[in-house]
Design a protein that fits this description.
Layout: E1 4-10, E2 15-20, E3 29-34, E4 39-43, E5 47-53, E6 75-81, E7 86-91, E8 100-105, E9 112-118, E10 122-127
Antiparallel strand pairs: 1-2, 1-5, 2-3, 3-4, 5-9, 6-7, 6-10, 7-8, 8-9
Amino acid sequence: MEQRKMIAKFKDGSIIKGTSRDFSSTKASFHMKSIDGGIFILKITDLKAIFFVKDFDGNREHKKEYKDVRIWDGKKVQVEFTDGEFITGYTMHFDVNRPGFSLIPGDLQSNNEEIYVITSAIKDVTFL
C-alpha cells in the first residue's frame, strides 16, 4: 500500500502527524508512524478525523475559500464536529450508520487532499 502523510485528530483535541500504509475505512484500527519515529496503533473510535495532507506544515496564512466547484467529487456538505469546528467539502457517500466517510476539501488551495471524517465525532451534516 502507498504511504500517505496524515494528521490524526483525536476527539480529546490531541493530534499526531505521521504516515501510514495500512489505513482503510473498513478497519477498526491502523498503524501510524509519527514524524518523530514512534509507532502507534490508532483506533477509529478514538478519532475525530484523519487529514491526508500535502505537507505537515501547511500554510497558516491561507484563508479558506469554498468557491471551487468540484462536480465529480459528490455532494457539497458542511460538517459540524461536536467540538464546534466546521469543514466544508464534497462527499460521494455519507451514511450515519457507517463509522466514517471521505470528504474532498471544497478549497482547492487547502493543504488537505482528503479528510476521513469519523461519524461519531459529528454534531451535524448540512447538504449545501
